[in-house]
Amino acid sequence: MKIAIIGTGNLGKSIAKGILHSNGATTLYLTKRDTSELAPFEKYGNVKLTSDNIQAVQESDIIIFAVQPGHLAKILEDIKGSLTEKHVLISTAAGFPIQNMEAIVGAHNYILRAMPNTAISVGKSMTCICANAPGQKRMDLAQAIFDRMGHTMAISEELMQAATVICASGIAFWMRLVRATTQGAIQLGFDAKEAQELAVHTCNGAAGLLIDSHSHPEAEIDKVTTPRGCTIEGLNEMEHQGLSSSLIRGIVASFEKINQIKQM
Ligand SMILES: NC(=O)C1=CN([C@@H]2O[C@H](COP(=O)(O)OP(=O)(O)OC[C@H]3O[C@@H](n4cnc5c(N)ncnc54)[C@H](O)[C@@H]3O)[C@@H](O)[C@H]2O)C=CC1
Ligand SMILES: O=C(O)[C@@H]1CCC=N1
């Protein structure tokens, strides 16, 4: 599989690492206006670095656009003359609708949007994907690529903004919860390194319980909460302080913001 990542910044580098660690590409083009920062990728034999987007497109089958939304239209204009029927276009640009891509390159192309998160670099991204009508024929291919780097879900485009908040911004939200747990553990006597280890692996275990058993969080909570015990005491105090409410309000605020700053 010949893949190009157009615009290898924060997310593009994470995707590149995920593809390389999952052996997901025979050739991987990474483009950036100044490629010097991408030098660490040169150690991989199948990686080619270039600032020439047209060359990367011509020599690849799957094109992943990981540029800021404001740069995408110009790049699509630049490369549209090099597109052939083999190309599958996948954009990660938040808030740049498929319709706008179609208006530039043509609605006959396979056009998809993917919203991975930065955990793609360690093969654990939650990636939501949607496609235009022709692109539906390439959904399986796109899901196969991103499934190698985590978990995927096909969604309708109208939910892409919500998916961005829950999955992409969600990494930051979960990090803050882990940090708060770590701070609590330090207050209880663990050193910072131990505290983070405890927090991270407990978080991983909680997610693992839900992923493997498909059970409901409250069912797992019921198994832990001894009547008159310490867990329910802590949980109820967290809720008195607004834990669930603050998370939900934060998610809604994030969603309102993304709808203000993005086009769709
Ligand atoms: N899923 C996620 O977790 C996240 C997604 N995003 C979305 O992903 C996209 C990329 O975000 P970041 O990686 O944070 O941005 P970034 O600014 O770090 O990376 C974009 C890269 O594109 C390069 N670039 C700009 N114009 C170019 C051109 N003409 N040719 C080649 N390269 C060019 C820039 O030099 C830069 O390195 C954005 O649309 C953003 O909305 C952003 C952050 C997180
Ligand atoms: O914070 C943001 O606006 C971008 C989109 C999703 C993650 N980062």
TrEMBL record:
EC number: 1.5.1.2
Binding site for NADP(+): I6, G7, T8, G9, N10, L11, A66, V67, Q68, P69
Superkingdom classification of source: Bacteria
Record-linked InterPro entries: 6-PGluconate_DH-like_C_sf (IPR008927), NAD(P)-bd_dom_sf (IPR036291), P5C_Rdtase_cat_N (IPR028939), P5CR_dimer (IPR029036), Pyrroline-COOH_reductase (IPR000304)
Pathway(s) the chain acts in: Amino-acid biosynthesis; L-proline biosynthesis; L-proline from L-glutamate 5-semialdehyde: step 1/1
Domain Pyrroline-5-carboxylate reductase catalytic N-terminal: from-to ranges: 2-95
Pfam families in the cross-refs: F420_oxidored, P5CR_dimer
Keywords: Amino-acid biosynthesis, Cytoplasm, NADP, Oxidoreductase, Proline biosynthesis
Keyword ATP-binding: no
Sequence similarity: Belongs to the pyrroline-5-carboxylate reductase family.
Name the UniProt record assigns to this protein: Pyrroline-5-carboxylate reductase
Organism of derivation: Sediminicola luteus
